[in-house]
Amino acid sequence: MQRAATPLLHHRRDIDGLRSLAIVPVLLFHAGLGLPGGFVGVDIFFVISGYLISSVLFRSAAAGRFSILGFYDRRIRRIFPALIAVLAATTLAALVILLPSELYSYGWSLLWAVLFSSNIWFWKTTNYFGDPNIDLPLLHTWSLAVEEQFYILWPLVVLVLAKLPRRAALAIVLIALVASLLLSQWLTVKSPTSAFYMLPSRSWELLIGATLVLLPPPAPRHHRWLAIGGVAGLALIAYAVVFFYDSILFPGFAALVPCLGTALLLYAGQADGPATRLLTWSPLVGIGLVSYSLYLWHWPILSLSQLALSRPLSTVEAVAALVASLLLAILSWRYIEQPFRQVRDRDVATQRRTAATGVAAMAVVAAVAGVLVAAKGLPQRLPPLARQYDTVSKSLPHRALPGCGLVGPTVSAAVMRPCLAPANPEPSIVLWGDSHALQMKDALAAQLEARSLTLRSITKNGCAPFAGAIQLDQVGDRNDACAAFNNAILAGIVADPAIGHVYISGRWGKFLGPGGGGTTNGYLQLHPGEPIDSATSRHAFIVSVRGMIVRLRHAGKMVTLIGPTPEFAVSAPKCMARAAWRGDDSQHCEADLTTRREIPEANTILRTLAAQTGAEYVDALQRLCTGLHCGTGIGKTLFFRDENHVSAAGARHVLAAQAR
């Protein structure tokens, strides 16, 4: 095989600088300090990693010095020391900060993290861009897992590719790259969490780096074009970091923007140019050198500090957390990373001892994780009341009812079939909405059973019941699947003569912000092309809800609207559990709707619409709040199970007035 470009015979300071362009956006994004697309920093790391590791592998194969044992010796010395240190420190902090439910989940994530499989665990249990994941101190280890899974097989692939002509090897890598990219785009639409976390839909990013190694080196006459390419690479990364939002379909084709930008900078770095000179600026190089340790430390610090305080960090606190992360990263780089990486002239026996030490360290951490899981998060650390509150956070509606409870992003005929099945002859009562309808399911079903009636529950998480309207996220991307679901459900209910009563509930306030400090989580439109703003959204809100009620009433259905419930800064039961654990005042756990004016505004609009159209209205705020102040429950009974959903007791309390 002909010699690959950029054999990596010397240290490239521009790559250290490029690492800083990866880590800084990630830090700011996670700390909530701007840069909405900062999550693309991980994609930059993937491309850099694929380039550097492939450079080493192809160079050693070409020189006849390829050693699988030697490769893993270097990987262990590079990855394990700092990782084990962070896992140990995080576990010690978790023991005094995390509640039993959180520590139990942490134990599982610790086990998967030390086995470099945490991406699989988080794929199964979380949504990176969904509900806040602040109670997952090891969430960031998913990217390490993706890389290490890639490098289990990649050295063996390189052994084969190195024996082929360069063009043949390049063609094979490009075919694999394109296949992975197409899979990534398909999964991003069909199963976004799988696309985000799993290796098959991420490997193309590492293969971009490998492709650069197989390209012929640039001729001196092309250095001017390299300089232009470097500037273009900076522009692509800047665009992604500034203009991407966490609601974008990602990774898929969208990830090409930061990945191609990184590739341009890596290739352009083989010659002098403005981008290369910028990346060799000493502050950027310095941050890049400690970027691995900085990545490891920053998320546990941000996560655990917010959990310890039972509230989001202020701007000053977030900055302080990042400064602390940087200081720990510098110490980690100097006293943990460097001593292990700078060992030279390692013979086979030493390499085997390194591997054995690495396996032993993994075994110790895995054993600790096993204890945390087996002990169910060590609940004996907490007093009884704190344990009681913590269990509320784990409670979910559990009744098996006719109908459907959709959670995926897409809607198909097969998925919708249980939702639209005729209700002949029973049930004659339907509950329709999103997860805020689902939270009422058990209490409403029990209430109806007392009257010998059966409930059908038709819900789709994240899809508020606005038939005839288009739902958009905070950056204006349409949720066509949600619109299709709502329109089909309304038509199905209207057409079914067996259905006599419809309860409708949703997270109503999310489409009416911002107001009085509240946040806009989404918008509504009646027609494509309308302005994406609060005024248009409010108008569509009113028209949609009125239209639904009128259509249902004309079809002879009774209609009951269930109003919005309060929303808290953090999980109410977990906040109360920590307060009981420490003996603190729990007033900070309560909700103040003066900063969430969209919620009482939605309540007023819905109450008015119900009165105008002859619908029944359940005023949840009246049941759960005093004015704009909302407590967490009555006595030792909590009415909420997280930041914005009521508990079983809360649902019963809301619906109690209607039962009388």
UniProtKB/TrEMBL annotation:
Transmembrane segments: 21-42, 48-72, 79-99, 105-123, 168-188, 225-242, 248-266, 278-298, 318-336, 356-375
Cell membrane recorded as keyword: yes
Entries under Pfam families matching the protein: Acyl_transf_3 (PF01757), SGNH (PF19040)
Span of domain SGNH: 417-654
GO MF term list: acyltransferase activity, transferring groups other than amino-acyl groups; hydrolase activity, acting on ester bonds
GO BP terms, alphabetized: lipopolysaccharide biosynthetic process
InterPro entries (alphabetical): Acyl_transf_3_dom, Acyltransferase_3, SGNH, SGNH_hydro_sf
Bilayer topology: Multi-pass membrane protein
Domain annotation Acyltransferase: ranges: 14-333
Secreted keyword on record: no
Any one of the GO CC terms: plasma membrane
Classification via SUPFAM superfamilies: SGNH hydrolase
Swiss-Prot/TrEMBL keywords: Acyltransferase, Cell membrane, Membrane, Transferase, Transmembrane, Transmembrane helix
Domain of life the protein comes from: Bacteria
Primary localisation category: membrane
Location(s), subcellular: Cell membrane
Listed PANTHER family: ACETYLTRANSFERASE (PTHR23028), ACYL_TRANSF_3 DOMAIN-CONTAINING PROTEIN (PTHR23028:SF53)
Name this polypeptide is given: Acyltransferase
Protein's organism: Sphingomonas panacis
